[in-house]
Write a structure and sequence with these properties.
Elements (H helix, E strand, L loop, with lengths): L1 H13 L4 H15 L8 H11 L6 H14 L2 H13 L5 H14 L5 H18 L4 H12 L9 H10 L3 H7 L1 H22 L9 H26 L5 H19 L5 H34 L2 H12 L3 H15 L5 H18 L4 H14 L8 H10 L3 H7 L1 H16 L2 H4 L7
Helix pairs in contact: 1-2, 2-14, 3-14, 4-13, 4-14, 5-6, 5-12, 6-7, 6-8, 6-11, 7-8, 7-19, 8-19, 8-20, 9-17, 9-18, 11-21, 12-13, 14-17, 15-17, 16-18, 17-18, 18-21
Length: 426
């Protein structure tokens, strides 16, 4: 029966059916064929509701709304101006500034796709005008946007926390060190490529110009500090932080910057609602599908397969990493999480792995799939935004992909990289 359900699910996706509807269809058929006897159909309704019946999921639409408000409010250009004022003296400064902008953006929206679109629209044309290669300009934005779901706040971290029933605050903090490692490595790669290709240096700014640029971008720069600082020092819960972020973004964009009119608010709320509903619908649809897999002892089968290969927790985690990297070649991160985490979370628990470490590694792993072919969602987003050849962008992402894989190995082998900061929060 389980094989039939999985085949039906895969067939429905290949036929073009949306992932959520494919899971619902497979679950309905599986319920009626379970051990040759139908189960009460109320199970479909109860497990669907249970998939989104978690208070922490309120943070998703709130953080998405904060990101929409700040993007619409001219966030990207202010951050670009500030970044160039700070590091414009470096060779290849536009690529370095792109990484710095994406780092700040990651602390606001938690969405890689939104960051790639917002930053790419400003920075790709600027880099091309300065003689940066088309593929390289896109690769810099794609690699930088990958930081969005890793540095807090992170929508994938919220999804994992809800599915694994672990602290969202601690999950957020688990991404800080890996995210900073990515940024440092990415900026080093940008510096190396800029020297090799002799990319230009921007005008060196004075101390006064730096202060002016910082003042103009202060409203934007403070938001990540408020979110991360408030969570780290226990001033707000994750849900309260999301509400504060949305309210702060509203006040800054409407009152402080005056870049959003009342007419734009409805569009911001509408776009945030649509983006959030996609995530929440997938979680709801995954409820009956995950329950059916559990009832069919799929989790035990996965655990037994991994256990037959190795009983060492680290080796098992490395094996899971390999599997998820292959999954990331054909599935986008969020669908992959929805499909595989219900089976892998109990495996991690059975191996005695720290759930925070396990979650950070899983999320980081699947985010890498956003910059490697054949799916490489961010590659196609920046290609569309900048009107660039996707093949050239994909080739230029290889150095960044190599560093991302290196960081994945580091956080897998050295758990304190993901657990040290969360351990300071009780």
């Amino acid at each position: 029966m389980l094989a039939l359900v999985i085949l039906l699910f895969l067939g429905a996706m290949l036929a073009g059916l949306d992932l959520g509807f494919a899971m619902i269809l497979a679950a309905v058929v599986g319920v009626f064929l379970h051990d040759g006897q139908a189960i009460g159909t109320t199970m479909l309704a109860t497990t669907t509701v249970a998939g989104v019946d978690s208070f922490v999921l309120v943070t998703i639409p709130l953080f998405v709304l904060a990101g929409e408000l700040m993007n619409r409010g001219g966030l990207s250009q202010r951050l670009v101006d500030w970044s160039l004022a700070m590091i414009g003296f470096m060779r290849g400064a536009l690529s370095q500034a792109s990484m710095l902008v994406n780092t700040v953006m990651a602390g606001i929206s938690g969405s890689a796709a939104a960051d790639a679109s917002a930053v790419g629209a400003v920075m790709i044309p600027a880099m091309r005008r300065k003689g940066y290669g088309d593929g390289y300009a896109g690769a810099v934005i794609a690699a930088g946007a990958m930081l969005g779901p890793i540095i807090p706040p992170s929508i994938p971290m919220i999804v994992y926390g809800a599915m694994a029933n672990v602290s969202i605050v601690r999950m957020f903090l688990s991404g800080v060190v890996p995210g900073l490692l990515l940024v440092i490595g990415y900026m080093a790669i940008c510096a190396w490529i800029a020297r090799r290709r002799n990319y230009p240096v921007e005008k060196r700014t004075t101390g006064r110009e730096k202060l002016i640029a910082t003042r103009h971008a202060a409203g934007v720069l403070l938001l990540p500090v408020i979110i991360i600082g408030g969570i780290r020092f226990g001033l707000v819960t994750e849900t309260e932080a999301a509400a504060v972020a949305a309210l702060y973004a509203l006040v800054v964009s409407v009152v402080f910057y005056r870049s959003i009119g009342l007419r734009d608010l409805g569009d911001c709320v509408s776009r945030a609602a649509v983006s959030s509903s996609v995530v929440l619908f997938l979680l709801a649809a995954a409820g009956p599908f995950a329950w059916l897999l559990a009832e069919s002892h799929f989790n035990q089968a996965v655990a037994a397969t991994i256990g037959s290969a190795t009983t060492h927790p680290l080796m098992a985690l490395l094996l899971i990493n390999i599997v998820l990297l292959l999954v990331g070649c054909v599935l986008e991160p969020l669908p992959a999480m929805i499909i595989f985490l219900p089976a892998l979370i109990p495996v991690g628990h059975g191996l005695g792995l720290d759930p925070i470490h396990f979650g950070a590694v899983m999320v980081f792993n699947l985010m890498i799939g956003m910059i490697h072919p054949p799916i490489g969602l961010l590659i196609y987003i920046v290609s569309a935004v900048g009107k660039l050849p996707a093949g050239k962008v994909a080739r230029e992402t290889l150095p960044f992909l190599g560093w991302a894989l290196t960081v994945l190995v580091l956080i897998t082998v050295f758990p304190p990289l993901t657990t040290w900061l969360p351990s300071m929060v009780r």
